[in-house]
């Protein structure tokens, strides 16, 4: 049968369903709406042929060429194509659902309005192809080449474009939902405004990212941007892990809940960007301006914020563990519930910054200027504050358990109900401090100054405050059970109803103190001075109680 006769039969509507066409040359033939469902085409030449509306459902095409063929409106659903060329072909509005054609040549093909849902096009060449308004639902385009492709208004849902080349591709107005752009090359591409839930991990967005981690250097591309431009884009819940965004334009972008772990954002423009609940773990944010930003629940653990500005920023429940904040501007910022465990704050600028329920546990804070700051409910457990100027600070309900405050200056500070359990306060100065209800249990406060401090209801049980200065302090109803205050100076202090049972006040100066109704049960007061002290109602050693306290059960007899 001659090619012309075969073409005539196909054009007449004769069904070739399930038949095999081997090595037939039908180039330039008008085949009309040929019926080739489930047919097997091997080595067939269909270049320039007309197959408008043809039915090739479930057909198998092997080593077949359809270059410049007209397949507008054709049905190729579930077709399998291997080593097929459709370069410059017209596939507008064609049904290509679930078609399998890996590494197919579709360069410059016209696929306007085509349906490629669930199609497998891994490694395919779609450079210069027209995919305007095409449907790419769950389409596999892994490693495909879409350089210069037109995807305006296309619908991409759960589409896989990992390692694909989309250099200068136009996606303006495209609908993207959970699209995978892992390691995709998007240099010079026009991206839509909505990129929410897309995954762009290690994608290439500018020429700054040509040098890859594996040592390869990507060639320069015409039209590639000097820096990534995602300004105003909606990247809600998107993933951009490891993307180079150095000097990128991200102003006004919605990055809420976006994952930017490991990104280089050095010098990026984030003015007006939404970074709430974003993940920036290990990101590089050197010299970035985040002034006034709302960083509520943002993950900045291990991030490098050297020289960055967080002036006036709101950091509520923000994670800054092990981050680098050297030289970072935190002036006027509000930190509530933020975690700074292991962070480096050397040289950070902290002026009129408000800290509330912030965790400074284990940190060395000696290089910071904290005087006069509000630090309600902050945790300084095991922190190093030795010799620091903390005068005028508000430490209400703060926790200094096991902290080192030796030689620190806390004059006129507020530490209401703060906890200094086992803290080191040797030679610290708390003169004039307001620490009502504070807990100094087992603290080491030898030589500390509490002159004029308001410490009513405070607890010093087990504390070692030898030679401390407590003159004029308000110590009413305080607990000093088993405290060691040998040689301490209490002159003029108010100790009414204080409990000093079992305390060691040897050689202490209690002259002119108000000890009315104080409990001095079993106090060791050898050499102590009580000149002019008010001892009205003082309870002395109760022998019966002392005997009961000293009671020890007899040793058990071994039988």
From TrEMBL:
Instruction: Output the Gene3D superfamilies linked to this UniProt entry.
Output: E3 ubiquitin-protein ligase SopA
**Alphabetical list of InterPro entries matching this protein:** 5peptide_repeat (IPR001646), Pentapeptide-BTB/POZ_domain (IPR051082)
> Which domain of life does the UniProt lineage start with?
Bacteria
SUPFAM superfamilies, A to Z? Pentapeptide repeat-like
| Official protein name in the record | Pentapeptide repeat-containing protein
């Amino acid at each position: 049968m001659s090619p012309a006769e075969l073409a005539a039969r196909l054009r007449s509507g004769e069904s070739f369903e399930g038949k095999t066409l081997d090595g037939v040359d039908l180039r330039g033939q008008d085949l009309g709406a040929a019926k080739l469902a489930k047919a097997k085409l091997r080595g067939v030449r269909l270049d320039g042929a007309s197959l408008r509306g043809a039915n090739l459902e479930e057909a198998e095409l092997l080593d077949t060429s359809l270059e410049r063929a007209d397949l507008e409106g054709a049905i190729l659903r579930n077709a399998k194509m291997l080593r097929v060329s459709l370069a410059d072909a017209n596939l507008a509005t064609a049904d290509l659902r679930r078609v399998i054609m890996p590494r197919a040549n579709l360069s410059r093909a016209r696929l306007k309005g085509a349906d490629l849902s669930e199609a497998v096009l891994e490694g395919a060449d779609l450079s210069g192809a027209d995919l305007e308004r095409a449907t790419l639902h769950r389409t596999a385009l892994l490693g495909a080449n879409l350089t210069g492709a037109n995807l305006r208004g296309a619908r991409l849902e759960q589409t896989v474009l990992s390692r694909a080349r989309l250099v200068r591709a136009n996606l303006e107005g495209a609908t993207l939902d959970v699209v995978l752009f892992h390691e995709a090359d998007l240099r010079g591409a026009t991206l839509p405004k909505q990129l929410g839930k897309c995954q762009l991990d290690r994608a290439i967005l500018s020429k700054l990212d040509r040098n890859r981690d594996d040592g390869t250097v990507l060639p320069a591309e015409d039209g590639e941007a000097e820096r990534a431009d995602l300004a105003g884009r909606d990247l809600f819940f998107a993933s951009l892990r490891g993307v180079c965004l150095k000097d990128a334009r991200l102003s006004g972008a919605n990055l809420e809940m976006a994952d930017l772990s490991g990104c280089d954002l050095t010098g990026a423009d984030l003015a007006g960007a939404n970074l709430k609940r974003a993940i920036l773990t290990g990101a590089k944010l050197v010299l970035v301006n985040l002034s006034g930003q709302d960083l509520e629940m943002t993950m900045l653990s291990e991030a490098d914020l050297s020289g960055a500005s967080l002036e006036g920023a709101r950091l509520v429940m923000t994670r800054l563990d092990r981050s680098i904040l050297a030289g970072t501007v935190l002036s006027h910022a509000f930190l509530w519930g933020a975690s700074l465990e292991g962070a480096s704050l050397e040289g950070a600028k902290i002026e009129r910054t408000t800290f509330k329920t912030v965790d400074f546990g284990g940190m060395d804070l000696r290089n910071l200027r904290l005087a006069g700051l509000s630090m309600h409910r902050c945790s300084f457990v095991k922190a190093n504050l030795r010799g620091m100027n903390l005068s005028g600070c508000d430490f209400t309900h703060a926790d200094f358990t096991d902290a080192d405050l030796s030689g620190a200056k806390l004059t006129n500070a507020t530490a209401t109900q703060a906890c200094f359990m086992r803290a080191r306060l040797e030679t610290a100065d708390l003169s004039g401090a307001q620490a009502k209800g504070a807990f100094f249990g087992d603290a080491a406060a030898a030589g500390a100054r509490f002159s004029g401090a308001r410490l009513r209801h405070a607890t010093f049980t087990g504390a070692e405050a030898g030679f401390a200065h407590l003159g004029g302090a308000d110590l009413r109803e305080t607990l000093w059970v088993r405290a060691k205050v040998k040689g301490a100076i209490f002159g003029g202090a108010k100790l009414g109803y204080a409990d000093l049972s079992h305390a060691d006040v040897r050689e202490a100066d209690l002259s002119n103190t108000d000890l009315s109704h104080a409990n001095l049960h079993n106090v060791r007061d050898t050499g102590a001075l009580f000149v002019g002290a008010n001892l009205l109602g003082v309870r002395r050693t109760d022998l019966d109680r002392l005997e009961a306290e000293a009671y020890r059960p007899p040793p058990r007899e071994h039988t």
